[in-house]
Amino acid sequence: MKIAEAMKTIDEKWTQKKKGFRVCMESYDGNSWILDFSPGEKASLLDSDVTSWRLAWKLAQSTPIDSQGPKLGDMINIFVVDQDKKPIPYYVTGERETFNAFSI
Amino acid sequence: MEGELVEKAERLRYAMVEYGAEMIQGLIILVFGLMLLQFVMSRLRVFMDKKAKNRTLATTILGIIYILALVTILSAALITIGFDSRNLLRLIIMIGLVGIVILLILRPYLPTLPFKVGNTVKVGSLLGKIEATTMVHTRMKTFDGKTVFIPNSKILADFVINYHYTPTRRLKIDIPIRHIKDILKCKQLMESIMIEDPRVQNKPARPVVYVMNLVDGSIKLGARCWVANPKFWIAQCDLLEKILTAMDREKITIAGRRQEISLFHETPMEISDYRSNPVSNIMSGSDDTGQDNAPGFSAVNEDNEI
Fold it and tell me: CB distance A91–B196 less than 8 Å?
């Protein structure tokens, strides 16, 4: 196997480079919880997972879960996904993390 | 003498009666034209700053518009005064051609600034983005929001780093670790983090980690990878954060400055006794056995880690 072939194999089969990230959440529109993304699905992805997780955390801080029930604009189950909408592990813990985790 | 003055005044009066209205009209066209031009140019500049993606092209277009508008206003004013429009056109074309020829001849000998508007450059100790250049000075906006006017003569005489000449830039992260057993684990960890990052490029070179040095009891690992120039700063901060948090998660000890303290006396103390409680040993002058051993031990403080 030539070096170039070996490199190609490594690129394809070992660590997959993500194309970008977006924050996934469920937001309350007054009647039901809808799946939402930031940046939106048509917008370009964020290129930093660190920035994406900071955005997720800030969104979680801005809408703390209220025991009196959901209000318009509330956001729950906030986490970061890749270009295929697959959740990515939180870089700090190395495991899946969800901010404002709440079961509907 | 008096007669000459009277004659001159008479000539002026005649000129004012004959051409005064045209001269005033020409002056009004010139003044209002220049004021309108300044107003339009300031609005255009604001518009271009917001909308234009290529700032160099925008500046060039603005310059051309300004020159054309200025020539039009001057021509209109001169034609109103009474200049022949054909002769004026010939004059403008001749001046333009002579200017172009002179510029072409002198261009190789004219000193040019080693950057364009919009480039991020470092001039001496100043780092920032070039906002505008004139014949005399260059306006730079530093990343902490200051506007600096640098004389072009100083720029031409100083070292200039232009970060836009190449599309990519090498990113360098050096991490000192304490234990030899962590070398491989740490190398793999750093390399994986760099490969996974979308901003890290495989060209001109793939990301790599070297064992750089062994200094002051710490092993220095050096990570090197290439990222696009505009993303350099954030990518470096993010990668460093991810590497440090991952090392903490994997319990890889980062080495801080190592300090060695040696106290000598005739009666040496057992190092194991000293390590059990080094601070109280120093403060009280006795070890755990209760024996007075204050004036005698030799030890190395290895706990100075971050």
Answer: no
Across the interface, of A18, A19, A91, the residue whose CB is closest to B245 is A91
State the ipTM, two decimals: 0.89
Tell me phi and psi for residue B201, to 5 degrees: -105, 155
| B291 bridge partner residues | none
How many residue pairs bridge chain A and chain B with CB atoms within 8 Å of each other? 42
Q: What is the pTM of this model?
A: 0.65
Residues of A in Cβ contact (< 8 Å) with B234:
48, 51
Report the residue of A10, A21, A47 to disrupt the B interface, i.e. the one with the largest count of B CBs within 10 Å: A47
- Token pair, residue A22, equals 């977006």
Mean pLDDT by 10 residues, chain B (306 residues): 82 80 87 92 86 77 87 87 83 88 82 86 92 89 94 90 90 92 93 92 91 88 93 94 94 81 69 54 44 42 44
The Cα B238–Cα B225 span in angstroms is 13
**Which residue in B has a C-alpha nearest to residue A16's C-alpha?**
B196
Task: For residues A63 and A69, give the distance between their C-alpha atoms in angstroms, rounded to a whole number.
Answer: 12
